[in-house]
Write a structure and sequence with these properties.
The mean pLDDT is 83. Helices cover 34% and strands 16% of the residues. The longest helix is centred in the first third of the chain and has 12 residues. By secondary structure, the chain is an alpha/beta fold. The chain has a 4-stranded mixed beta sheet with strand order 1-2-3-4. It has a 3-stranded mixed beta sheet with strand order 5-6-7. It has a single domain, classed as Roll (CBS-domain), CATH 3.10.580.10. The protein starts with 5 loop residues before the first helix and ends in a 16-residue tail after the last helix.
């Protein structure tokens, strides 16, 4: 069993955040072509059950926009929106993106400064290759410290004087 001190753990986190985004497990984004109705976008989200944003891509895979969860809840659920309108009527055009050679730190910074939960990742030609979610980063960091996390006491201030079951 590795016994890392808190200081050792703190030193490892910055190194982990300097890893390239390509090390993260990414989920497949929910995509639709331009001209898709808002109703069909909502159906695509329901059908996949994993997305909270819809990425609008040309036939060659180039990302042109995103319909975010904020767009859906702030505009569509609030009412008064014709769901037969094309996605372009509400989507964010030219969304912020990262490429897989950028770092986890870059994704965290963009999530914090832009208040994003999902960041599309693109290849050098601007084609959508995946989406990075906060949970993907958290899972990666947690998996980097499996023993330390699994052996945490139920309350961080609680220190066991004897092994459990003694």
């Amino acid at each position: 069993m590795t016994d890392l001190s808190e200081r050792d753990l703190v030193r490892r986190v910055p190194a982990l955040t300097d890893e390239r985004l390509s090390v993260l497990n990414r989920r497949e984004p929910v995509t639709v072509p331009p001209g898709t109705s808002l109703a069909n976008c909502l159906q695509a989200i329901r059908r996949t059950g994993s997305g909270d944003s819809v990425f609008v891509c040309e036939t060659d895979g180039r990302l042109v926009g995103v319909l975010t969860e904020r767009d859906i809840f702030g505009r569509i659920v609030a009412g008064g929106v014709d769901l037969s309108q094309p996605v372009e009527s509400l989507m964010t055009r030219d969304p912020r993106t990262l490429d897989l050679d950028q770092t986890i730190r870059d994704a965290i910074d963009l999530m914090q400064t832009g208040r994003y939960r999902n960041i599309p990742t693109i290849d050098p030609d601007g084609r959508l290759v995946g989406v990075i979610r906060q949970n993907d980063i958290i899972k990666y960091l947690a998996e980097s410290f499996p023993e330390e996390l699994l052996n945490l006491p139920p309350r961080t201030h609680q220190l066991l004087e004897e092994p459990e079951g003694a």
